[in-house]
Structure of Molybdate ABC transporter substrate-binding protein:
Amino acid sequence: MTTLHIARPVLRLAVLAGACLAAWLPAQAGEVAVAVASNFTAPMKQIAQDFAKDTGHTAQLSFGATGKFYAQIINGGPFEVLLAADDTTPEKLVGEGQAVAASRFTYAIGQLVLWSPQVGYVDDKGAVLKTGDFKHISIANPKLAPYGLAAMQTLDKMNLMARVVPRMVTGENIAQTYQFIASGNAQLGFVALSQVLENGKLRAGSAWQVPASMHDPIRQDAVVLNKGKDNAAAAALMQYLKGDKARAVMTSFGYSF
């Protein structure tokens, strides 16, 4: 009997504590709709999982070309945070009154790479571009994708535009560009280093990491959009992206800061 009288109050307290915790968590946890540049797909999926575990907030992710996201945002798209593939689009959105100026920061600097799924096809200096030993090369649309613009700047600096452009297969974004190459529709192409890395190592094929001096820096900025300015989950995500855990993930995919 003595044991029973002790257990009942303890049980009631445990049930009450559990109920209070269950009531508190949903009030604290939130959800944020995030538009994410295609090149940042793999790291952001991992970061979003960590973010949910560490904060209780959920990031609903949409992936695509930064240029297309811009068009959707100015036409009332549902996004609350933009992780762009450049720094000009977030700047433009701030200037047009579509985003919170104080929230904007560079979350990563991207790395351009010339890649082929064939081992030994691309040398470590990109000389294959000069030999012309390919039928097609894939590049993301430079009007929509900053990595495509960086690729064009690289070709221009190498004086190879006239030779390469007739063989070019243009992807709508960097994800489609990667698919053109991986499927064999193009023998090689310019993609983001993050797309061909796994655990810090080249996943397959051969690649040339384009020196940063060959193109403008690929500064990727994040910004809170007007729809997310009062969302605690949006603010929490922006802070999380600046943390060591998120940056460790980015580093493993070839990004710098």
User: Anything to note?
Assistant: The longest strand covers residues 31-37. The first helix runs from residue 2 to 28.
